[in-house]
Amino acid sequence: MKIFKNKGDIYISKSKKISNQAKILYSLLALIVIFTVVFVGYLHKNYSSAAEFFARGEVTTTQQAEDIKSQLPDISGKTNFLILETDDNKEKIHYIYLLQADRDNKAYKAAALSPLMKINNENLQSIYNSGGGLALKSRLTEYFGFEIDYYADFDMSSFVEFVNKLGSYVYISNEKINYSNDEEDDKYTLKINEGEQLISGSETSNLLRYYSEKAHSFSAENEVILKALPALLNEKNYENVDALFKLFMKSCKTDITVREFENGKNGVSVFCIMSTDLTLYSADTEFNSDGSLKDSSIKNIKGYLSK
What we know:
alpha+beta
């Protein structure tokens, strides 16, 4: 018996005699029917749906993420950093900010400052000129009353190179910016469209500088910082964390030591793996006409960055 004589046609022989081929086909059909009945009965008894049966043994992406997080080391404590960028001649601060890595709450907290911010009638630029990043760290620790643990002092070219090594990231701008400054020996140009775009090291540096020097929008500066950090310090980059730390040490002046980095690796790993799940806090700052911080901003920064 032939089932398909021509494509799309069903043909049954007129002969009443059942051939061996037919017997085999009928036997196979009977087995299929029996198997189907047994399978459906088993499925109905043990599973609420077919989807549950076929998903058996599979782990969803969410479950995988939760399993990874449950295996992360326990971390605690809070570490404050002072980060700044200068021109390549180390004469002028482009931008400066405080950053806390809060391991207790798995959070980043940022507070952008102005290089012209005054402490006892002396601005941060003057303090830097006389004693560098270490002097700034000491004076700001005394001023705010909480410990700033480390500083990192980049020049512009080294900062751009370091960020480019980490990669680019998506940034959503609330405005279109087309700006060039008029400083002959320290020029920069910033062209940013409104909306979502991919930016790298030079755009990050120029955005932070623009919001600090030109727009004086320290809340917008915080937004750039808090967007860039978790996007760049991610799980993929953690795979090369030792090489990246060596590049970091070459790219800036810092008082972070290799030993302290090794001791803090658990925290780095957790922040990199949980990068998209970290909580982000912006301690916005406002200044009086004389360059001093407003009392409300001092209180705001202390509330976020005190340990």
